[in-house]
Amino acid sequence: MPADGSGAAVPPALYPPGYDTNSLTIFEASLSEMMAARTPLLSASTMDSSSTASPNDASPNGYGGPSGQSTKGPQRKPKEHHIGVTGNYGILYQEGSLNCLPPKLTFPLPPYYVQIDGDPLGARLANDPEPRVADIAKSFITGMKNTGYTNSWSKGSGQWTVNALKGDGALINSVNLGLVIGHASFANTVENKTDNILHTYTWLSDGTYVHLNDMHLGAGGTLRWMTMLTCNTLRDQNIQTYINAQWLGTIINDNLHLLLSANTIISGTENTTAYYAANLKKKQTFPNAWYSALRQSLKGGSLSGPRVAKVMGHNPCFGDKLMDWQDPDPGIYSQTNQVWP
To answer: Are residues 113 and 16 in the same domain?
Structure first.
């Protein structure tokens, strides 16, 4: 490359024979180093919308690569490939009823409450008890036997609080694989005019909730994969506001490999978690195992509107398997997959 930095680095073979190289800086670099140098430095707001890659794609492992572009510049560390490493997982679920008002605005002006899930302003959130949610959790535990991953804890309604999901020291960050099953909502209006965030909320049966950005997933370096069988947690319109506020990197810590959830309403049964565990045991990648489990369990159902799953995280972790995974590189990517119809 020109010694004064006025041009890009190119292979020496491109210069004609006899060319005066005294004005050039000549160095050696591997292909991977050259490709890394070409990675664009982007702001969070440039992340592209999601793709529709299918678990049945012809690419290796059925994965065609995540959509979107890096939200951070390249600060590469040596990657390690981990094979045959055992681990642990934990489950948080809510099977109790939910009957509460929406989150309050931080400014005391009418209408006083955030509009939730497209419902009328001030409408209460009302869900009957769902005892089968406990069975959905048990189904995953049964399916994960003999995988090399042990169940550290499984907690239902009344057995955990918002602190299990909030902040760096959250209980969820103490395991390698986290699973949350329960109610979630999306905001149509902002809670705080200062940050203009359209939050998504994970609800507990007592009416308390966790904003998505309250979660610091991967803090401490233990949690690698977080799966949330919850509605709208990664809804495009709401996630974009987190990106605009540059909060996405707080939610998906540099140590977290993948966050797997939904872009729309999602439905789950005991079969969903049974298929998910079985697919992981079959050495499917996490995204493929998730998409396929939802598709298998929803097949033949009678639902209104499409169901779309979503995965967000780091490269090359979209190719992670339960016992075969790599350390994450900087940059957050996104992928969606319609799982019904």
So the answer is: no
pTM over 0.90: no
How many CA atoms are closer than 13 Å to the CA of 48, on its beta-carbon side?
Answer: 11
State the Cα torsion 282-283-284-290 to the nearest 10°.
70
Gyration radius of the chain over CA positions: 22
pLDDT band at 2 (very low <50, low <70, confident <90, very high): low
Question: Which DSSP string corresponds to 44-100?
Answer: GGGPPPP----TT-SSGGG----BS--SS--------EEES--EEEEEEE--S-EEE
- DSSP line for 146-193: TSSEEEEEEE-TTS--GGGTSBTT-GGGGSSEEEEES-EEEBSS-S-T
Residue range of the domain that includes 5: 1-38
% of residues, the chain, pLDDT over 70: 77
Q: Do 16 and 81 lie in a common domain?
A: no
- Number of structural domains (the chain) is 2
Residue 54 and residue 32 share a domain: no
